[in-house]
Amino acid sequence: MTTALTITAxxxxxxxxxxxxxxxxxxxxxxxxxxxPKATNGRYDILTSxxxxxxxxxxxxQTTFESETLTLPAFLKSDTTAQQQWLLEQLPRATQExxxxxxxxxxxxxSYDLGRNQAYIPSQHSSVTQLPLARLGLxxxxxxxxxxxxxxxxxxxxxxxxxxxxxxxxxSAPRVPFKLTQPFSAELSQAAYTERFNAVQRYIRAGDCYxxxxxxxxxxxxxxxxxxxxxxxxxxxxxxxxxxxxxxxxAVLSLSPERFIQSRDGLVETRPIKGTRPRGKxxxxxxxxxxxxxxxxxxxxxxxxxxxxxxxxLGRVCVPGSIRVPQLCQLESYPNVHHLVSVVQGQLASQHTxxxxxxAAFPGGSITGAPKxxxxxxxxxxxxxxxxVYCGSLGYIDVRGSMDTSIAIRTMVADGxxxxxxxxxxxxxDSQADEEYTETLDKIxxxxxxxx
Length: 452
Known about the structure:
By secondary structure, this protein is an alpha+beta fold. The protein contains twelve helices and 23 strands. The protein has one domain (6-173, 184-451): Anthranilate synthase (4-Layer Sandwich), CATH 3.60.120.10. It has helices at 17-23, 37-40, 80-88, 112-118, 158-169, 190-206, 226-236, 283-294, 297-315, 354-361, 372-382, 433-451; strands spanning 6-10, 30-33, 44-48, 53-57, 63-67, 105-110, 134-139, 142-146, 151-156, 178-186, 211-224, 241-247, 250-256, 259-264, 267-270, 273-278, 324-333, 337-347, 369-370, 393-398, 403-406, 411-415, 418-427. The longest helix has 19 residues, at 297-315. The radius of gyration is 21 Å and the shape is globular.
């Protein structure tokens, strides 16, 4: 069991990549990356490795548990949420007051298909990857870079501190180049996408749904180190909710601009993105595209629908009357796209935990549509394969009850030499097939281009 937690100042660096390169080959290494903060308004980078335990949730609902020091109780065998809560309780709660976001806890990903399973929606399709439905580590240490205060901290026991400093002072692993051996190809032709678009329109006219988030998958073959691919992606399109984790021949490379849920001191916040335009080639064209997005009745309606859905999701676990929307349809610009972003907040009810909050709202409404359950059923019917980590979440749950998670869009999933990326968008009654098809390409064009 871990000993007393310490928070130790380290020399500040604005770049987490050199530090993480030293940890890249350590077991269970995870980077949560704010992606060049001056470009993304990000604040914290969090790096860690060597978890005390690793929990994987398989496609059959069974869990795989690995730990040298902990044994998962048998009575928790069929309850994966209770297993995660039990793991959090194995770390001593931090006695030091700190505004730092993570003082030990769970970190990893929860896939979209985990949420589909929890909603009792069986899939008609096989998974294109062998990645588990969730992979979470229980971490008792991390390094955190604070880019607003320009400070860096080691959080963990004194023994861990000495161990990690030794790792960081050692030689870096040899660099293994990354390259695609086959270019990305689309799972759907434009005609096949349009057929599915038309099916969504029929469902909307019949009253089954108001909005459906329809995605398509692109895949390529590759060889080399996925970390080198992440570096290329990050250089091309830095985003504030990025992340990297790899194990065996599997990896998650996420360049997400979207927060799912943050919970801190009981204050809950979600930041749905709906409404997209590409960046322009000139300042004038760029401003015109941004203005077009801001003035678009369709895109604002799409955003407001999801805000209403998320207000309902948060209302299931928040104090009645505490839900508010301090920001509605505000423009945020990233290297490859403009987005409309809203903010929904609430106060978590005292009887609920961050895990129950995550379960109540998962997967995020911005990547399903409304109403959520019917939208997810239609998505499974129309999309040719399961989504894997795409549209799930990366993030952490801290021992103090803090949580921050992303929506895993702009996310690549590597599995045994195959690399997958999805692009999607919300479809409503007045959507146009050609425009929506183009939007799916706009969202991932920079990612694919960075590797090709």
